[in-house]
Design brief:
Lipocalin; 5-stranded antiparallel sheet; 8 helices; 12% helix
Length: 614
């Protein structure tokens, strides 16, 4: 173990040692006053949720949850392994203690919206959208080249037009898509909302089985997406009625967190998993999941092909605790894949292996044949990266490699430079950006370090390119210190598309107040977007900024970390901006704010900005 990791473990142990005192202080109770729920929380949950586990939502965020969500998480969700030893009554007790709310005897009543079903005439055809899927248009470039309503000349006139608050939500992770008349977006509660573009009023809702984290994709008259239960869906874009639902992976911990994409015949679904969480438990036999991309028939919902990123796991060795290990495993796909119709290829980026042995397809770009799913070529950018949650907790299931956890969480961007040459651009949590040649089996053309890297980036969720420059948001949260390289550069940076050389850099100022309840940091983890002459980026500190594309200076900014009046009458508040990035369409900007993991500030809003608020 490196010296830095020993320090991290000692810090964790010290944090656990003082949890009892912190718990009493935070909850305002004495030891002899603890209820059953409080005792269960103190024994089973408090160490992580009082700050010892960075990725766990803080208690202040958990208080905003409905108790039913906590019970579901303990029963079958993220915390199901922690809930194994708890009875249903125990789960009810701890959920009611954390939230201060009673578990409903029946389903939560439908939210009453102040402007629901106003009868806006919907177009007969919804095949054309102004921002579709994760990347907006072809190539996943996150660039709106035809935007004329927002420019450097009027950017200082931007005002909030309307805001929509998601009921009982603490994060908004599903990026909206926008047509001429409608906005479609998923939610933490698994509800798909169809909202009127001009007013934000709800036209219809659809309830999926679990949280929807990725962007939707509209193909013909079908809205396509995946959920945290490992399902893919097609619903009617006019009515919200279900067309089909398909389970995409046999592993019980499989999830769809990335955005789906489709051509005229098939839907392509990236598959990740939650297995790195139970892997931290000493008795857990790690690991059985293997990443995949699944192609589904657009009309029937039947699987056409499944391509796994690694071979099937087999028994390998036993840990020092005597627990059987399996491998290889992991290499999840938690970013949206990219279509290349010209070459009949699909590009998927992968994460780390979960267990030994590390493979050649983790932390890599995989090019798959659209017809068969056959892997045509692989470009790996980090070798020997096997890691799971046991590594940060110093428990025996940590793989022998104890890798840096340098997933490629950003979708690959297919871009055409001014000289006509196409490049595939990828960004990694390591702080590296690469340009690959799609005509030379992914050969690296150039590479550039933009930040020091870390488990939270480096480059975390996504970049943008206008075919001249690559716009890179850098998080560089001070995590994973043993593997970080060089100075941190939290902010926004522009690279020349052809050469990878820096055009400009903007390390952002730290505007965070001291002593806040939640983590605040100036880095950009969420995906970046662009339009002609402008770049749009939201920060972990809740600041939404618009930059000059030519020089990188800040032209306009808005603090989303505040209470907001909403069109639907639900209490709205912003927080950290994480994961999905700004959407630009028809003179409007669509932005989500709020994220409750990693100690970040929770929030529940979709905001729409336009010049003068018109």
């Amino acid at each position: 173990m490196t010296n830095n990791r020993r320090i991290a473990v000692l810090f964790l142990l010290r944090s656990v040692a003082i949890v009892g005192l912190s718990f009493m202080s935070l909850m305002g109770v004495q030891a002899d006053e603890l209820s059953d729920g409080a005792k269960i929380f103190q024994t089973n949950c408090s160490a992580c949720h009082l700050g010892a586990m960075l990725e766990a939502p803080k208690v202040e965020a958990l208080k905003l949850y409905p108790p039913e969500r906590i019970i579901k998480s303990l029963e079958s969700g993220l915390m199901s392994t922690a809930g194994i030893g708890l009875s249903l009554a125990d789960k009810h007790a701890v959920a009611e203690f954390i939230t201060g709310k009673k578990v409903a005897d029946s389903k939560i009543s439908e939210t009453i919206y102040t402007c629901k079903s106003i009868g806006v005439d919907l177009p007969k055809s919804l095949s054309k959208v102004d921002w579709n899927g994760w990347g907006g248009k072809s190539g996943n470039r996150r660039h709106q080249e035809n935007e004329s309503g927002i420019s450097p000349d009027n950017v200082d006139e931007l005002k909030l037009k309307w805001a929509f608050a998601f009921p009982e939500a603490t994060r908004v992770r599903s990026q909206p898509i926008v047509s001429k008349n409608m906005v479609y977006i998923g939610s933490q509660a698994g509800i798909i909302y169809a909202l009127d573009v001009e007013t934000g009023c709800v036209q219809w809702e659809y309830q999926a089985k679990d949280e929807v984290r990725g962007s939707l994709f509209l193909q013909l008259d079908s809205l396509l997406f995946g959920d945290l239960d490992g399902n893919a869906y097609a619903i009617d874009a006019q009515s919200g009625e279900l067309k089909w639902r398909t389970k995409v992976h046999p592993n019980p911990l499989a999830v769809v967190t990335g955005s789906v994409i489709a051509d005229e015949k098939k839907v392509y679904v990236p598959v990740s998993s939650l297995e790195i969480i139970p892997a931290a438990r000493v008795e857990y036999e790690c690991c059985s999941f293997r990443g995949a991309v699944v192609a589904i028939d657009l009309q029937s919902g039947e699987k056409v092909w499944t391509t796994y990123t690694i071979d099937e796991p087999k028994p390998t060795y036993k840990t020092s605790a005597g627990t059987q290990q399996h491998g290889p495993s992991g290499a999840p796909v938690w970013s949206g894949p990219t279509l290349d119709l010209k070459r009949n290829l699909l590009y998927a980026t992968t994460g780390q292996n979960y267990s030994s042995p590390a493979t050649g397809t983790s932390d890599a770009v995989l090019a798959m044949d659209l017809n068969s799913g056959e892997i045509k070529w692989v470009t790996q950018v980090t070798k020997d990266d096997a890691w799971n949650g046991a590594c940060s907790r110093n428990t025996p299931n940590c793989p022998k490699e104890d890798g840096p956890d340098y997933d490629i969480g950003a979708s690959a961007m297919l871009s055409t430079a001014e000289n006509g040459k196409q490049l595939l651009i990828i960004g990694q949590k390591s702080g590296m950006v690469y340009a690959l040649n799609p005509d030379a089996k992914g050969k690296i053309v150039w590479k550039q370090r933009v930040g020091s890297g870390g488990t939270m980036g480096g480059v975390h969720w996504g970049m943008s390119t206008d075919n001249q420059k690559v716009y890179v948001g850098v998080s560089d949260l001070p995590t994973n210190n043993p593997y970080n390289v060089g100075a941190a550069h939290p902010g926004l940076h522009a690279l020349d598309l052809k050469t990878g050389e820096f055009v400009w850099r903007n390390d952002l100022p730290n505007v965070c107040a001291k002593g806040g309840k939640f983590m605040c940091f100036p880095g950009i983890s969420a995906a970046v977007s662009s339009s002609t002459n402008l770049v749009y980026a939201g920060g972990l500190d809740g600041m939404f900024r618009i930059f000059s594309a030519s020089k990188g200076e800040i032209l306009w900014e808005y603090d989303t970390k505040q209470a907001v009046n909403t069109i639907n009458g639900v209490k709205g508040f912003g927080g950290s901006i994480e994961s999905d990035g700004p959407v630009i369409a028809n003179g409007k900007i669509y932005l989500t704010s709020g994220y409750d993991k990693w100690g970040e500030a929770p929030g529940n809003i979709l905001m729409v900005f336009s010049a003068g608020g018109k």
